[in-house]
Amino acid sequence: MAVTIGTVAAALADTLVSDSAVTDASGVQANSGSTTLFCVKGEGTATTSTSYIKAWDATSGAPDSNNPDYIFPVPAGTSIEYVSADGNALAAGLRYWGTSTRANGSTQAATVGTLAAKFLLS
Known about the structure:
Elements: E1 15-19, E2 28-29, E3 35-43, E4 51-57, E5 70-74, E6 79-90, E7 94-99, E8 116-121
Antiparallel strand pairs: 1-8, 2-7, 3-6, 3-8, 4-5, 4-7
C-alpha cells in the first residue's frame, strides 16, 4: 500500500470547547459572534439511556424556550462524532444543552448520567 503525505492549506478550526457534564439546567454559551461548527463529539459512556446534545445559533435564551437548530443523539454507553466537512455557519454564536428527550419543545428532561460534549469551531 502506498502512503501519501500532504499538507493542509489552512487550519479547519481553531477552537475546541469541552464540557464534561452537559445538562439541561441552562444553555451554555460556547462562544459569541459568528463561527463555523465542524464537529460535535458526544460521550454518553456513563448514561443509561440515549441522550441528546441540542445546539442553537444564539447568544441568550433558556433551553425550555428555544427550539434547537441541531439535535445530536448520543446512544447510551457510547461515544459518537458528527462531522461536517464544510462546517455549519452560526451567525450569533453556539449555545447548547443536553437532555434525555428528543422533543424540541419546552420542559426538557434532565440528562440521565453524565453526558460529555466537545465542539470544534473556527
